[in-house]
Amino acid sequence: MSEAAGTPDHIHAPGPTAVAPTAVRVAANEELTGRGVTMAFLDSGFTAHPDLARSGRLLAFHAIEDPSASLAAFSEPRPWEWHGTQTSVVAAGDGSLSEGVYRGLASSARVVLVQVGREGSIHEEEIARALEWLLENHERLGIRVVNISLGGDLEAPLEQSRVNQLAEEAVRRGLVLVVAAGNSGGGPRHAPLPPASAPSVITVGGYHDWREENGRAFALYLSSFGHTPEGVAKPELIAPAMEVAAPILEGTREFRVAEMLTRMTTAPDDELVGLARDHREDLDLPSQGIEAGPDAVRAAVIDRLKEKKIVAAHYQHVDGTSFAAPIVASVVAQMLEANPSLGPAAVKAILMATAERIEGAPAERQGHGVVDARRAIEAARAGVR
Question: Which of 169, 176, 149, 189 is nearest to 38 (CA)?
Fold first, then answer.
């Protein structure tokens, strides 16, 4: 059972399979939290996750295909609600279910959730309608930053792409659009699709990083890349796209399994073996390991945590440019908190100017390089345009 359900029988802090928080990975200024900034997320679906809902920052929810729909809270999530819940919490969650460790950089920002498509099926027509809704409502809701972790159907020049035309109009009206590049960098058709190919949006690819004896090492993720029909190189920059901490949805079997496995990491020996016997089938623990004693059980539990990518009782790590983009969107929210007068062009220019290239990696794959949140904030405060 979860603490939200009233029975706090497990720890919330990250455990033995933890990954580094976003703030550490992008050298963020943690004094800024996106306060006073409203962010919108266009995605396949959402739940009212505690990291967003408990703080009262959920400003609005709108489902393009069903305007009468409401945001589900603490009910059995549907498969298409995972992605949007994770992208929004990666950017703007307050980390309340991880003792604040896995909070987003924009943990004080107001949030607008826009569900695109129906039951996870998304096409360019639905993306266009979502952008039209944003254009009609952004002033009323005060939206400044938009994260789009989804893509269209086909590559097309600007004059033939309604999605890209609407994205360009949104930028002209003062919205900063941050779009995931896509994950097709390993194939022959690796060009970003609308709206990632719109010239004025900030298109985000990905990287993986890890600690070595002499510092941090980087490797490129298989992000989509290439020149748009207008000749614009995409992506503009890259952000963490592997082992990004994201929420496990409450009410799911995965949520219950993660809680139990995490509880077992700190259980005393006499309790541990009993828990393993009682929950062996649910947790898929080897029966021979259980009978071998506490040390074998602990080793099996760690193996299961790694297999399921669980980093804390309520979080797992996820991969893809879908999660690199909201990290950059949260940096943008910090920049606008530091300097609300910045427009979309200035924000984009600052992010590109302060990024750091990965030495030896192709420029076409990384754009201007790795996002550097701290340097971007410093430039924003200085009023660089």
Answer: 176
Distance in angstroms (rounded) separating the CA atoms of residues 203 and 367: 9
Task: Give the separation between CA 51 and CA 83, rounded to whole angstroms.
Answer: 15
List, for the chain, all residue ranges whose pLDDT scores fall below the cut of 50.
1-8, 74
Cis peptide before 21 (omega within 30 of 0): no
Structure tokens at 383: 């009023």
If you search the block for the tokens 């010239």, which residue do you land on?
Answer: 199
Query: Using alpha carbons only, what angle is made at residue 236 by residues 170 and 136, rounded to the nearest 5 degrees?
Result: 10
How far, in Å, are 52, 162, 219, 228, 233 from residue 191 at the CA level?
A: 33, 18, 20, 7, 10
pLDDT at 6: 38
pLDDT of residue 227: 95
Q: CA torsion sign, 193 to 194 to 200 to 204?
A: negative
Work out the widest C-alpha separation in the chain, in whole angstroms. Answer: 69
Helix%, strand%, coil% for the chain, nearest 5:
40, 20, 45
CA–CA gap between residue 106 and residue 331 (Å, rounded) = 7
* Cβ proximity of 148 and 179 under 8 Å: yes
Looking at residue 286, its pLDDT comes to 75
Contact 239, 204 (CB under 8 A): yes
pLDDT at position 3 is 42
- Please provide the size of the chain in residues: 385
- By three-state DSSP, how is residue 271 classified? helix
pLDDT the model gives residue 74: 46
CA distance 274 to 199: 59
For residue range 4-19, list pLDDT tens digits in order. 433 445 677 788 999 9
pLDDT tens-digit readout, 173-193: 999 999 999 999 988 889 999
Of 258, 304, 334, 250, nearest in space to 31 by CA: 334
Side by side, the strands of the sheet bearing 244-247 are 244-247, 315-318, 310-312
Judged by DSSP in three states, 111 sits in strand
Whole-number Å distance between alpha carbons of 338 and 332: 10
As a whole number of angstroms, the distance between CA 223 and CA 230 comes to: 20
Q: Which of 309, 353, 265 is nearest to 86 (CA)?
A: 309
Residue among 52, 74, 24 nearest 244 (CA): 24
